[in-house]
Amino acid sequence: MSKNFEVSTLLDYYGMLLTDKQREAVEYYYNDDLSLGEIAENLDISRQGVRDSIKRAETILYEAEEKLKLMKNTKLLRNGLETIRQKIDVIDGLNMKRYRSNDINESIKVILAELDKLDEI
Amino acid sequence: MSKNFEVSTLLDYYGMLLTDKQREAVEYYYNDDLSLGEIAENLDISRQGVRDSIKRAETILYEAEEKLKLMKNTKLLRNGLETIRQKIDVIDGLNMKRYRSNDINESIKVILAELDKLDEI
Fold first, then answer.
1. pLDDT of A12-24, one tens digit each?
2. Does the distance separating the beta carbons of A67 and B70 come in below 8 Å?
């Protein structure tokens, strides 16, 4: 069984769509790097049961991303917000040095506060 | 059975998590405003089957939102982007009228392009 470490990231987004057993198995396997045997012992199920849980969980995680695109869209959002923040810093720097406009300062302040809020979602 | 029209919005986000039958029943009921009897006829199942499908679908939709918060976060995102756009317009207006800085113009252009991209997600 090959490990695809994207699963670990998908788990952050869609872990709550899994059953407790599926989530535990995937966490042990991808986050804690336990062997199938060790996981089987921890969960008190067979090695084949662990393998099935992980395979089923991976299918659910990938289907959820295929349908909802949370991981992809979150990356786009983070990149977009970062670009906006950089350009606001450019405008802010110019305003501090050259134009000294309070109206611009005020708008920059509001935009930075919004960017901080959007970083939280 | 009372109609909660939030379901229609949740359907836009999480409809793909439903089975075809569940989704069709909910669409007929909330989007097309058909009666349970009409839906039963269209889907060739019993009225009770329709009722069960819709109830089950609603549970899935609300649980998905509870877990993933796509509807809530999308609202926050749209509001945040709108506020940023308004403040960029303020800065743009001031720059056009008073400061005439190409460096500011260039940054505004990049920010507006990013906002357009983020509006698409």
1. 999 988 999 999 9
2. no
Nearest Cα to A37, choosing from A56, A5, A2, A46?
A46
Q: Cα distance from A37 to chain B (closest Cα, Å)? A: 31
CA pair distance B99, B111, nearest whole angstrom: 18
A 10 A CB-CB count for A84 gives: 26
Q: Count the neighbouring beta carbons within 10 Å of the beta carbon of residue B12.
A: 11
Interface contacts A/B by beta carbons within 8 Å: 90
What pLDDT digit, counting tens, does each position of B19-72 carry?
999 999 999 999 999 999 999 999 999 999 999 999 999 999 999 999 889 999
Structure-token pair, residue A57 = 């969980």
Contact B83 A114 (CB under 8 A): yes
Q: Answer for the pair B31, B40: CB distance below 8 angstroms, yes or no.
A: no
Residues 6 or more apart whose CB falls under 8 angstroms from that of A9 comprise: A71
Put simply, the answer to whether A87 touches B121 (Cβ < 8 Å) is no
> Nearest residue of A to residue B99 by CA position?
A99
Q: What is the pTM of this model?
A: 0.82
Residue pair B23/B11 in contact (Cβ under 8 Å)? The answer is: yes
Torsional class of B100: left (φ above 0), alpha (ψ -120 to 50), beta (otherwise) = left
Q: Is the ipTM of this complex over 0.90?
A: no
d(CA A62, CA B24): 24
In chain A, how long is the greatest CA-to-CA distance? 70
